[in-house]
Design a protein that fits this description.
By secondary structure, the protein is α+β, with helices and mostly antiparallel strands. It contains four helices and five strands; from the N terminus they run βααααββββ. The radius of gyration is 17 Å and the shape is globular.
Length: 165
């Protein structure tokens, strides 16, 4: 897998997803709901665990880039549309200092799809972050949508971030 760089956004219509729900057979009566779901086959044959490990590193790096107002790093790992939104957030924040401490992070590939010549991978991130010094860590739960050309050319880019309620 290459690095993470800008790609074109993915329109939401007519997506043909393959999700954890599709990949995992129905659990027999009395089976543990805490059992690990079946792995999803990723585009290009990369193992889910490898993709998740890389995704966690990118998550932490983007938190640091956002805190520092590093637009070059934000641009490198996001689509132009998401970058524009993040940049607007930075302009709104102004000179206010922001520090995010990622205390705990877990990542799980939950869905893949192919649409309009692009592969889409959705990763669920959850864990604990601290955004105020000397405060307790708060839980977070987000879905990050990553895109790349379906022919495997180019790099993965973050196209969207959705909070999970």
């Amino acid at each position: 897998m290459g690095g993470w760089q800008p790609a074109q956004p993915v329109p939401p219509a007519d997506v043909q997803p393959r999700s954890m729900l599709d990949a995992a057979p129905a659990a027999p009566a009395g089976a543990s709901l805490g059992a690990a779901p079946a792995a999803i086959n990723l585009p290009g044959g990369m193992a889910s665990a490898d993709f998740e490990r890389l995704a966690k590193m990118v998550f932490i790096r983007l938190q640091a880039a956002n805190d520092a107002g590093n637009v070059d790093d934000l641009r490198k790992f996001t689509t132009p549309e998401l970058f524009a939104s993040l940049r607007a957030d930075l302009l709104e924040r102004g000179a206010a200092k922001q520090t995010t401490d990622v205390v705990q992070i877990d990542a799980q590939v939950v869905e893949t799809a192919r649409e309009n010549g692009q592969d889409i991978v959705t990763v669920r991130f959850h864990g604990l972050i601290r955004e105020v010094a000397d405060a307790g860590a708060e839980p977070f739960n987000e879905l990050w949508h990553l895109v790349r050309a379906a022919d495997g050319q180019g790099d993965w880019a973050i196209a969207g971030i959705t909070p999970v309620q």
